[in-house]
Write a structure and sequence with these properties.
Radius of gyration of chain B: 16 Å
Helix content of chain A: over 70%
Number of domains of chain B: 1
Oligomer: heterodimer
Largest interface: A-B, 26 and 25 residues
Order of helices and strands of chain A: HHHHHHHHH
CATH architecture of the largest domain in chain A: Orthogonal Bundle
Strand content of chain B: 15-25%
Low-confidence stretches of chain B: 1-11, 174-188
Structural class of chain B: alpha/beta
Shape of chain A: elongated
CATH superfamily of chain B: HUPs
CATH class of chain B: Alpha Beta
Distance between the termini of chain B: 23 Å
Number of strands of chain B: 6
Low-confidence stretches of chain A: 94-113
CATH superfamily of the largest domain in chain A: RNA polymerase sigma factor, region 2, helix turn helix motif
Radius of gyration of chain A: 20 Å
CATH class of the largest domain in chain A: Mainly Alpha
Mean pLDDT of chain A: 80
Shape of chain B: globular
Helix content of chain B: 25-40%
Strand order of the largest sheet of chain B: 3-2-1-4-5-6
Strand content of chain A: under 5%
CATH topology of the largest domain in chain A: Rna Polymerase Sigma Factor, Chain: A
Distance between the termini of chain A: 35 Å
Number of helices of chain B: 7
Number of strands of chain A: 0
C-alpha cells in the first residue's frame, strides 16, 4: 500500500492562513534546517543560528498572510532568515567581549572549534572545484590578493572577476550547507560522480 | 550521596523545565511533552546535552534533532511558535556534566525520557539524591497530543520531589501554573 503523499507547501500554507496550526508544524519540520543553515552561514555560530532560526520561523508564522506565492516558500524563508540574521549581527557585537569586558573562554573555545571545522570543510570543498575557480578563491580569500592582481593574473576585467567570485562564493556556500546537512562525505561522493 | 547542598544564591535562580538529551535519537513524544509542560507553567524550556570531544562534529546533528522535534511539537501540540527551545551543549562526559548541572540548578524540573541512555542516571535511584523536581516519563503516546494525552502521560509518569496531590492538581489546568510556582518556592 502506498503511503499517503505529503501535503504540498501550497496546501500547508493555505491551511496555515486559515489558522490550522499543525500546518505550521509541518512546514517547520520541512524547512527549519534550511533556515538554520542560512543563519549559520552568516553568523558562523551554531547556538546563535539555532536561536535565530526559531525566531525566523516565528516571523514566518506571524507574516504568512503577506506571502503571496510569487516565489517558493523556501525562497521567502531564505530571505527572512538572511535579513533577520544580518539585522541581529548589526545590533549585537557578541563575538567581541562579554559584558565584563573579558573574553568568554568557553565561547571562544567553541567558536574556535567551529571555525576550524568550517575551514576544514571549506578547504576540502574548494579543492574539489575546477582549477581556475579554485585558484581564484584561494588567491582572493587565502592569499588576500587584490582585484587588480586577479585582473592581471586571469586576464579578466574587474567586473568579471567580481562576478566569478560572487558565483563561486554562492556555489561554495550551497555546498557547505549540503555538507553540514548530509555530511561532507556525501557531498564529496557527488563530486566523484559528476 | 550525590546530591547537593543548596547555596543561598541558588534559591533565587529562575527555574526551568529541562530535558536531558544524550545525543542519540530523540524521542519526539518525550521532547514535545516536556516542552508542552514548560509552556503550560510558563517556564523556559531547556535541552541539556553533553558530547565527548571526539563527537563534537556531530554537534550539528543535535541541532537538527532539536529542530525536527520542535516541528513535531508544533504539529501535535497547541503551543505558540514563540515558545523557544534553548539548548546547552557541554563538552565532556554526559553523566558527570549532568550531575554538575543538577548541583548548580536545584530549582530546575527535569523531565526524563527513560528510553535514552544516560549511563545509569535515567532511573530514579540515579537522580534521587538531587533536590530537583523529577518526572520520569513511562507511557508515551505516539499518536499525537492534546489535553487528554498530556494528562495521561503525566498520570503514568513517576514523579519525585513534587508536592503532594500533584497529579490531582495537574489535571486542573488553570491551577497548574500556581502549583508549579508553589513547588518552585519550596526552598524558600
Amino acid at each position: 500500500m502506498k503511503a499517503p503523499a505529503a501535503p504540498s507547501d501550497d496546501m500547508l500554507i493555505a491551511e496555515l492562513k486559515n489558522g490550522v496550526k499543525s500546518a505550521f508544524g509541518q512546514l517547520y519540520t520541512r524547512y527549519s534546517k534550511l533556515v538554520f543553515h542560512r543563519c549559520l552561514s552568516i553568523c558562523k555560530d551554531r547556538d546563535l543560528a539555532f536561536d535565530l532560526s526559531q525566531e525566523v520561523m516565528l516571523k514566518a508564522w506571524e507574516n504568512v498572510h503577506q506571502f503571496r506565492g510569487d516565489s517558493h516558500f523556501s525562497t521567502w524563508l531564505y530571505v527572512i532568515a538572511t535579513r533577520h540574521t544580518l539585522l541581529y549581527l548589526s545590533r549585537n557585537k557578541r563575538f567581541e567581549m562579554d559584558s565584563s569586558g573579558v573574553p568568554d573562554e568557553a565561547m571562544v573555545t567553541s567558536d574556535q572549534m567551529d571555525a576550524e571545522e568550517t575551514n576544514r570543510i571549506m578547504l576540502t570543498l574548494i579543492h574539489r572545484l575546477p582549477e581556475q575557480e579554485r585558484q581564484l578563491l584561494l588567491l582572493k580569500y587565502q592569499q588576500g590578493e587584490s582585484i587588480e592582481t586577479l585582473e592581471r593574473t586571469f586576464n579578466l576585467s574587474a567586473s568579471a572577476i567580481k562576478m566569478r567570485l560572487k558565483r563561486s562564493r554562492e556555489r561554495l556556500n550551497a555546498l557547505y550547507s549540503l555538507a553540514l546537512t548530509y555530511g561532507l562525505d556525501q557531498v564529496l561522493n557527488i563530486f566523484e560522480v559528476m | 550521596m550525590e546530591g547537593t547542598l543548596i547555596q543561598p544564591h541558588m534559591m533565587f535562580q529562575q527555574p526551568r523545565v529541562v530535558f536531558p538529551f544524550a545525543g542519540n535519537k530523540i524521542s519526539l513524544e518525550a521532547f514535545a511533552w516536556a516542552k508542552e509542560l514548560a509552556a503550560k507553567v510558563h517556564l523556559p524550556f531547556y535541552v541539556f546535552c553533553s558530547l565527548l570531544p571526539e563527537n563534537l562534529f556531530s554537534k550539528i546533528h543535535i541541532y537538527h534533532e532539536m529542530l525536527e522535534a520542535d516541528g513535531y511539537y508544533f504539529t501535535h501540540y497547541s503551543g505558540h511558535p514563540s515558545e523557544k527551545t534553548h539548548i546547552r551543549i557541554k563538552t565532556g562526559d554526559f553523566r558527570s556534566n549532568f550531575r554538575h548541572y543538577l548541583n548548580r540548578h536545584p530549582n530546575d524540573i527535569i523531565v526524563v525520557d527513560p528510553l535514552q541512555d544516560f549511563s545509569g542516571i535515567n532511573n530514579p535511584s540515579g537522580l534521587m539524591g538531587y533536590p530537583n523536581g523529577i518526572i520520569f516519563l513511562r507511557q508515551l503516546e505516539s499518536s499525537g497530543a492534546g489535553e487528554d494525552v498530556f494528562s495521561h502521560i503525566l498520570d503514568t509518569a513517576d514523579v519525585y520531589h513534587l508536592p503532594p496531590g500533584f497529579h490531582a492538581q495537574a489535571h486542573r489546568k488553570p491551577h497548574l501554573a500556581s502549583l508549579f510556582l508553589s513547588l518552585l518556592g519550596r526552598h524558600n
